[in-house]
Design brief:
Elements lengths: L1 E7 L5 H11 L5 E16 L8 E16 L2 E10 L4 E6 L4 E12 L6 E5 L4 E5 L3
Antiparallel strand pairs: 1-6, 2-3, 2-5, 2-6, 3-4, 4-5, 7-8
Length: 130
């Protein structure tokens, strides 16, 4: 496994940055190992919702997990606000770094992460090589 460490600056869009990094580097399969970041606003799609509301205010990332590749990312996030309230869901474009974002990504060189439509679930699901 190869490990990459990134540091994002204020006002960078974390999802957009991760997706562009994967494309630029031709990443076939990677995953988030750790992330420490703060947001000035965040865009999270909640379960069973089509839209992703923009949440304004200061947020700390409590957890950022799942997969990414040049074919797209699927990232789940939990954030805490200034009052200690926690919310989470699918990270979408529009989450802007407040002070910093430190991201550790692991590369899985023997895999290829792609998502394909699944008629049973009605969603694009991770296609695993066997």
């Amino acid at each position: 496994m190869e490990i990459f460490a990134m540091h994002l600056q204020p006002d960078q869009d974390i999802k957009e940055w991760i997706d562009q990094w994967a494309i630029k580097n031709g990443i076939e399969a990677a995953f988030i190992i750790a992330c420490d970041a703060s947001f000035k606003c965040t865009c999270i799609r909640f379960a069973e919702r089509a839209e992703a509301p923009m949440l304004k205010g200061k947020f700390e990332i409590l957890s950022l997990v799942y997969t990414l590749s040049k074919h797209g990312s699927h990232l789940h996030i939990k954030v805490g606000d200034e009052n200690g309230n926690v919310t989470g869901g699918h990270l979408k474009t529009g989450s802007l770094v407040n002070t910093t974002a430190e991201i550790i990504i692991g590369l899985s060189p023997n895999h290829e992460f792609r998502r394909e439509w699944d008629a049973v679930t009605g969603f694009n699901e991770l296609k695993l090589d066997t």
